[in-house]
Amino acid sequence: MKKHDQDFIKRQNRLTVFEIIKNQHPISRASIAKRTGMSATTVSRIVGELAEQGYISESEQVSSGLGRKSTLLDIAASSVLSIGIELDTHQIGIGIVDMKGDVVFSEAYPRTADESPDHTIVRLESIIGDCLKRHEIDRSKVVGIGVGLPGIVNHKQGIVLFSVQLGWKNIPLAERLKVLTGFNVAVDNELKVKALAEHLRGAAIGSSRTALLGFGNGVGSSLILEGQIYRGDWNSAGEIGHTTMDPNGALCECGKAGCLQTYINISSLLGEAGKIRPIRTIDELFEARRAGEGWAVHLIGRALEYMAITVNNIVCMYNPDSIILSGELIDRFPGIYEEVEALCLTRFVWEPVRGSFHILRSRLNERGVIIGSGLLAQDWFFELD
Ligand SMILES: [Zn+2]
């Protein structure tokens, strides 16, 4: 076997062992050997290296069955930190994420829709520097930055190819932020990192086929298959918001007509509402519905039906075991979840597959993108380490 093949296998084995400790801690060396098929010697060598680097800790515990003492391995959560960023039209969210996916702190800063890429990138640098300083974070523990944003992202190179919501096109975000901060930067689509976070630390732990739907300023989806993000060829898989529902429908911000999101997303709902009377916020629209104003009842009722139709389409196409409903509309109006679930199970999901999946609430809610971006940055670090 060639030297670089051996190195590759060693690295892969190390990653596999580390992943198992990260996701199934506390765990014994013997269980790792059993699960991976590696020899006890190999597992012990890798565990020794990881412990020496300070990534994992050991503790003596008495196993319940035989009363024998065994040594269990856990991750040293705060030995590695990353910066998770959620970049959205009107807000920049930032958090420090540890190895267990816990958020050490998080903050949010307003952003205007017309803020230029240059301005946003310079602001990101100053927000990051300021946060690390104020919260007295040891920079040597920070292994990188992860950024999640709406749009199509070349995740390998960290280039934002196209984001309608941000108004960005071909922006080499990772490279530019790395030059400014000195940290490695991973960039990905927000729903992809959110689904990863829900799969690793949230609502869909243990699921092997998770679909996440996002209903908010846009409409999108993402899929985690056997623990991996399904990306497609251009990392644009899941852009369901721009599937055509009616070629003669209302214009979408993407330039096409009758896209799915024109029936659901916040700006479309506010645009329609504005035809009746001046409605500025989504809360006012829901208030009008609660007060029984017919047009508002119709408008939101129709949006919920299209959400249920989206669930049906995803279930028919991908046969996931879990579907997570997420996004600003679901987070801010939790009652929507029950209404959509009821619509799915009584009317919209094709009958033969109704029992094939669980509909779940997002557990990480608005912190999902920060956690997922942070974990993605850590994954990059350990893959390169
Ligand atoms: Zn569209």
From TrEMBL:
Q: Which terms under GO biological process does the entry name?
A: D-xylose metabolic process; regulation of DNA-templated transcription
Please name the Pfam families in this protein's record. HTH_24 (PF13412), ROK (PF00480)
Give the UniProt keywords, A-Z: Carbohydrate metabolism, Xylose metabolism
Q: Which residues form the HTH crp-type domain?
A: 19-74
Query: Does this entry carry the keyword Ribosomal protein?
Result: no
Which GO terms of the molecular function aspect are on file? DNA binding
Q: Which InterPro entries match?
A: ATPase_NBD, HTH_CRP, ROK, WH-like_DNA-bd_sf, WH_DNA-bd_sf
As for what it does, the entry says: Transcriptional repressor of xylose-utilizing enzymes.
Sorted alphabetically, which PANTHER family does this protein's record hold? BIFUNCTIONAL UDP-N-ACETYLGLUCOSAMINE 2-EPIMERASE_N-ACETYLMANNOSAMINE KINASE (PTHR18964:SF149), ROK (REPRESSOR, ORF, KINASE) FAMILY (PTHR18964)
Q: Which family does it belong to?
A: Belongs to the ROK (NagC/XylR) family.
Protein name, UniProt field: ROK family transcriptional regulator
Q: Which organism is it from?
A: Paenibacillus oralis
Q: What is the lineage of its organism?
A: Bacteria, Bacillati, Bacillota, Bacilli, Bacillales
